[in-house]
Amino acid sequence: MKNANITGIFVAFLSGIAGALLLVSMDRGGNVSPVSSAAATLPQSVVTANTVRLVDASGRVRAELALAGDGDPALFFFDRQGRNRMVLGLYSPAEGEFPFVVLNDTKQRAAGIFRLFGAHETPVVVLKNEGQDRSIYGLNPSSTEPFIVNIAPGGKKNNVFGNY
């Protein structure tokens, strides 16, 4: 009889410990989670999304990391009026997925473009006025020789030096 009482007390003691562990390992929704889930309480180091927006205190979007319709990534920067003023991104696969930077004027037209171009991935800078190319300089995509081309408002090209 004495052994039965000791066995009963021992079983009750172990059941209490098991119940306490189960209670500690349950989240507020009643789902059981691992007891040693220290990693589950740490912030995630990866965020997965199609679009990430940075908004100011007024709720205006000031920057956006997004995928274009063809899946190419770009980072857009907006001024306080919501105008797209700068874009960092990659061109489509049809254009070699070359990186680019575009600076836009207040009418959201490209005013300056810096990009890689051609088989040798040469850097090229395009300066624009009211959406029209006015000066292009960089390294020739075929020869990698430097060039500058100015373009008159009517579209006539003038090679300052080198060939484009």
Q: Which oligomeric state applies?
A: single chain
Number of helices, counting only DSSP H or I runs of 4 residues or more: 2
Mean pLDDT rating: 82
What is the strand arrangement across the widest sheet?
A: 1-2-3-4-5-6-7-8-9-10
CATH class of the largest domain: Alpha Beta
Alpha-beta classification: alpha+beta
The percent range for helix content is 10-25%
Number of domains: 2
Low-confidence stretches: 10-14, 20-28, 32-36
Order of helices and strands: HHEEEEEEEEEE
Q: How many beta-strand elements? A: 10
Could you say what the CATH architecture of the largest domain is? Alpha-Beta Complex
The fraction of residues in strands falls at: 35-45%
Largest sheet: 10 strands, antiparallel
